[in-house]
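Researcher: First entry.
Model:
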Amino acid sequence: MPAIIAIAIALVAVAVAIAAWFKPAPKAEVPAAKTYTEQETADAKKAVCEAFDRGQATLSVTGSKTGADPNTAFAVAVNSRIAINTVIGYWRTVLQREPAAPKALAHDVIRLADTYEDILLRLLADATDSDLSGLYESVDRSVPVVVQACK
């Protein structure tokens, strides 16, 4: 009698296992896109625009410095590269912290950060001025777009 019960339990277990094997996995639910209030969007836009302005001011100050002797010129170049890297990271951090920022503004700031990052990488690889001219022109076109989006 115990052997029959054990066989019956085993058969039930096999049947359950087979049924579970062929049962489709539950579909993961896609969370609904988060919606933000007008106030949240305005606050995020303000934070992103303030970060943009702060970054541009930093780049303007460090980019305007020069050095007469080679050691000073080298220090200025290194400081400028550090500033570019810091501003890129700062903008990306603010954008992550402010998901309610308008998508177009966020896209424009990211595109500008990507361009600065490309400039930085090329500078570190000793790119020539002609290699960088197109990127500098891209920055010159992108900055006013972000400025306009921040109005």
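Researcher: Second entry.
Model:
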Amino acid sequence: MALVAKPGGPEGPTSHDVVDIVRRALGTDRVGHLGTLDPFAAGLLVIVVGRATRLAPFAAAWPKAYQGVIRLGTTTSTDDATGEPVATADWHAIDAAQVEGALATFRGAYDQRPPAYSAVKVAGVRAYRRARRGEAVALPRRRVEVAELVLERFAPPDVSFQARVSGGTYLRSLARDVGEALGCGAHLAALTRTEVGPYRLAEAVAPEAVTRADLRDVAELVRGLPRRDLSATERDAVAHGRPLPAGGGTGDERRVALFADGRLLAVAERSGELLKPRVVVAEE
């Protein structure tokens, strides 16, 4: 796992582009990431390498933090500055108190509709592909958590903010929804991801500068799971995919990180009185 600083802007790379750069830098094809950043967005991209790619689902729910700018008065086809304007409205009568009131309505849990131009699948096809074909895309709402949403500066028509949100939250949708709450429409004009789980943008390096020395312990991806240290006999069994007696624990620990000699060996899933290895990451 490595921490990479993705550049943004109108000609910014896609997250897949960044993965390709890291592949070339490290000389390996087995590279992925924890959470897409749109091309115009900048900031922290957590890269997973080799067998660590198997552990990505265990970190998918990590919260993320952002700094961004919502531009009032214009709604776009993509809910950000890269899309075509679809509606405009006057924003001049809106003041900072009204903006703060609108932001407050989205703190906590709310049902968010993902953007039409998103990677969400509709009948097996990415929504953005349907939208680009001119199809009407209306995605179902889903529950997200906005743990923090702070007004940093109001310089009309721009609203600078900080946010901390659950995994799967679209900041473009949040900008659109704030505009709807204010009655003038809005889109996301700029975005930088500053945190992913326990990691900060200040720790990241440029994609082309990543080396093997920048790779972190894969065990960090399962830091939220209960841990079990294995004996030599148990280690050999798990390495060959054989289950172990569940032993102690509370019984409600569905997944357990299994360690041998201080290194993460696998993630197991409790099935009755057994722990069955589901993801083995240590080299044989």
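Model: Note on the second entry: The domain at 2-61+198-217 is CATH 3.30.2350.10 (Pseudouridine synthase).
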